Amino acid sequence: MRLTLRDFTPADEPGVLALFADCDDWFQAATGHPSGPGDVQSLFYALPEGAAFEQKHLLVAQAQGMIGFVDLVVGHPAPGHASIGFFLVPKDLRRWGIGREMARALTERFPEVTRVHVRLDDFKPGNEFLKAMGFVLNGQRAVLEIAPRSDGR
């Protein structure tokens, strides 16, 4: 399967809300409550300390429809780094390699990123995914070192 990552548009909001509802297991583990209609709008304003609005990317993973969503801040906490707020895949599509494909697409879209940071929560399947992807889990954070690309891009 080949997926693409594209920027979120206002027309995506109903699909993203449906994805959020489908991922209530993650929302419950990460926030202690189910997702709600204001969660999409609040994403635009949710920035880690020290990050600028221009660094924020809300991305839709698409392959014959929406199959995932990424909340990403590039260049944070340092140049060449990226912070992932969350990375969602619908329940019925988990463990099909979509998360791995989304990660591959992220490295293609942002080749300057060599280190990825993720805040950990109590969502065991997500933490297992991070471990399988090679992230090093350390307390409340997980970090992945990405080798610089050798093709000059």
Automatic annotation (TrEMBL):
<feature type="domain" description="N-acetyltransferase">
    <location>
        <begin position="3"/>
        <end position="153"/>
    </location>
</feature>
<dbReference type="InterPro" id="IPR016181">
    <property type="entry name" value="Acyl_CoA_acyltransferase"/>
</dbReference>
<dbReference type="Pfam" id="PF13302">
    <property type="entry name" value="Acetyltransf_3"/>
</dbReference>
<protein>
    <submittedName>
        <fullName>GNAT family N-acetyltransferase</fullName>
    </submittedName>
</protein>
<dbReference type="InterPro" id="IPR000182">
    <property type="entry name" value="GNAT_dom"/>
</dbReference>
